[in-house]
Amino acid sequence: MIKTTGAMLSTEITKLKHTSTLWLSLIVPAFAIMVALMNLLGDYAHWTPRPPRPPLDEWNTALRSLWTIWVAAVLPFLIAIETVGLASPEHAGKHWKQLYTMPIPRWSIFAAKTVVCALLVCVSFVTFGVGVLGLGLLRSGLFHLDMASAIPWGLMLHIAGRAYLASSAVIAIQMWLSMRVSGFAIPVGAGLGATMAGTVLGPLHLTGWWPWLMPFDSLPWGIDHVPASVIISPVAFVVLTVLAGWRLSHSEIV
Fold first, then answer.
1. What share of the chain is helix, strand, coil (3-state, %, to 5)?
2. What is the extent of the structural domain holding 61?
3. Would you say 170 and 226 are in contact if contact means Cβ atoms under 8 Å apart?
4. Which of 44, 56, 170, 194 is the most buried (most CB within 10 A)?
5. Is the CB of residue 117 less than 8 Å from the CB of residue 175?
6. Domain count, the chain
7. What CA–CA distance (Å, rounded) separates 195 from 213?
């Protein structure tokens, strides 16, 4: 079992060399940072000097705006794109039937693709986190805020770690949908639609239960929910992965 899963993971990683999915994990967060950089330079062009606040308050202001945009708008779209990219080689070549008839557990196919997607999302988080740190230091230099003297490493790791764990349920759902449905439109449209539908649940304080809003709910500046999304999302990830693997193992080959 371990050898089979390892072989499947190796195969999926090799496939990344022939697709743009890996590059998207770097380009999308880099683009988000670039947009934030342009906004920062625009603010600097209209800057009026003011007494600086404590460095930690300045960091909180910067981190809150950047991470809110990332988890609420960019991350759901990125996960949908990555899952489609991981499933597209089999859809394009119509290889699913051949793949399911091979002497390997079918659940391992879904598990390998889901793990690789989780790794790609992790790469995106690291890229975005490094960019956020750079923007904070640039903000400090431009506006003379002395933020470099008090970098909140613990807070930044806390934000990124919680948001990443809270995104795990979306990874499992989008991966299953991308494997079941051929094409780009339905998986990505479903992800964007579910994200937009979350705006209705926000005022009802149900963000801790809606997978696409769980990363936003995990941010430390919102309302604490019980149970926390950083617990519910990983549990849902495990349950959904097991169910999807079971469903694949018992489905008919058509």
1. 80, 0, 20
2. 2-250
3. no
4. 170
5. yes
6. 1
7. 7
Structure tokens at 188: 């990505």
Which amino acid, residue 95? H
Can the peptide bond before residue 187 be classed as cis, meaning omega within 30 degrees of 0? no
pLDDT tens, residue order, the chain (254 aa): 556 666 667 777 777 776 788 899 999 999 999 999 999 999 888 877 777 788 898 999 999 999 999 999 899 999 999 999 888 877 766 666 666 667 677 777 888 889 999 999 999 999 999 999 999 999 998 988 888 889 999 999 999 999 999 999 999 999 999 888 887 888 899 998 988 887 776 666 666 788 998 998 899 876 555 567 889 999 999 999 989 888 776 665 43
> For the whole prediction, is pTM greater than 0.70?
yes
Give me the phi and psi of 241, to 5 degrees please: -65, -40
Q: Which residue has the tokens 């950089």?
A: 37
